[in-house]
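Review form for a predicted model. The reviewer records the input and the model, then writes brief findings.
Reviewer: anonymous (R2)
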Amino acid sequence: MIEVARLTKYFADRPAVLDVSFTVARGEIVGFLGPNGAGKTTTMRMLTCFLPPTSGTARVAGFDTFRDSFEVRRRVGYLPESVPLYRDLTVAGYLDFIATLKGLTGTARLRRVGGVMEECGVTDVRDRPIGRLSRGYRQRVGIAQALVSNPEVLILDEPTVGLDPRQVVEIRELIRGLAGDRTIVLSTHILSEVSALCRRVLVINRGRLVSDDYTSNLARALQRGLVLDVVARGSAEEVAGAMRRVSGVREVTTTGTSDEAGRYRVTCAAGEDPRAAVAAAVVASGSELLGLTARDVSLEEIFVQLVAEGGGARDGA
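Model under review:
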């Protein structure tokens, strides 16, 4: 559905996107993740025909974004980071205006506007001026304008930025409900957004794609060894020392205390599983073992490592 090959964009002599290639299949929700200034927005603007590439190609639904931009625009719904809303128009009036621009006419336009308002949960504010809506409702209207032409592809740039926690949950549920027939690319620098919505993630940093994989595969690839979270009551020095002496333990760090119990992170050597020995060592030290669990690497840890390996962030779009 989306095919990007060696996409590059320069602003004067400054590179914003460098040699980026990836594909997105029909029906996928793909997270486009990166720090601020990594090149996410520039890439999305090229995919939606707002910017031409300096070199490379991008195809959406089989059409080239440079040569066939009109056909691409017909098939793409775009929610930019700053939603282009006319605050003096009512919700229904604004969506009717957008539907007209998209070429819908007559009863088909009326049905589509009504349907997209229901789909996005804004029917109850259809006659209210957009300027009087909450930020969460305005974001819903922005998604509705992206959907009004019933596009095959949705490009969403930072769809939950600036929302309160309740509104974030609502918008995430709305986006999740849009998956299936539509292909969705979701740009964000919020790691929990990707975890909540996407199985696959593209990570971009300093204009270059540094990873393209499923989050579960990234965790396995970056996990150098088993990680154990240990909770024990006793002398922190003795507990940590006992665990460090266990064969197969590479590192022990103290992560905090709670109710007089110490919390420790135990990193094991690759291929080793010393859980039983670690538990025995804690007990043998005269301490009380309250918990020992193996855990997956978090998306935050994956992201930090990928960005560190790919270089730090820089200014840019």
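Findings: The mean pLDDT is 87.
Further findings: Residues 224-295 form a domain with the Alpha-Beta Plaits fold (CATH 3.30.70.3190).
Recommendation: see findings above.
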